[in-house]
Amino acid sequence: MADLSDFPITRRWPATRPDVLQLYSLPTPNGVKVSIMLEEIGLDYEPHLVRFDTNDQMTSEFLSLNPNNKIPAILDPSGPGGKPLGLFESGAILIYLAEKSGQLLPAANRYEVLQWLMFQMGGLGPMLGQLGFFHTFAGKEIEDPRPKERYRAESERLLKVIDGALAGREWIAGDYSIADIAIAPWLRTLRDFYKAGDLTGWDKLAHVPAYLERFLARPAVQRGLMIPKRD
Fold first, then answer.
1. Which domains can be identified in the chain, with CATH numbers?
2. Is there a contact between 184 and 211 (Cβ–Cβ < 8 Å)?
3. Which one of 21, 22, 44, 225 is separated from 148 by 20 to 30 angstroms, measured CA to CA?
4. Domain GST N-terminal: where (predicted)?
């Protein structure tokens, strides 16, 4: 049985099954990327809920694994060379799990998949997140319309980029991959949580709405969206 006692995070979130991958997360668009991936590849794991309302992500135990205080993070007792590996950043975790399992990052179009993963990490996620801030949360207190419009316009542009890439394809890089697992949860958040579809021309997109529905229909996606279970 793996010994994870050297990792302080296990003191706050004890591993009941220390021989399987430990997931520290919350069902946010970034968090569910990893739970969906784990469900898709069938790798056994133990989820732990990191609650934002009690600032779990700011505790010394969580910061010991991710000093950037963001979810998700993982602790794999069977990392490279058979040694435990702690890892943060959802994109890095997706690549790691794809390589560990040999799934959802095919060699034939590896770099196309990675380019779309980086597109999400560097553009789509940050822009939709900022739009959500100004549209759904504190933005109502800001009289200057320029910040919200900046993120609205850029979000609309990025959606059009995705829409064009999906022409003639079911998935963003051809076959279903970690790129879809990265992109689609943010599309769901824009439409269903931020309620910002109308702001960004959602109904004018030819391919994105059906793409999201295909993604949400996958059984592994449906399971992963609910993990970790909220209290």
1. 9-103 (3.40.30.10), 107-218 (1.20.1050.10)
2. yes
3. 225
4. 18-105
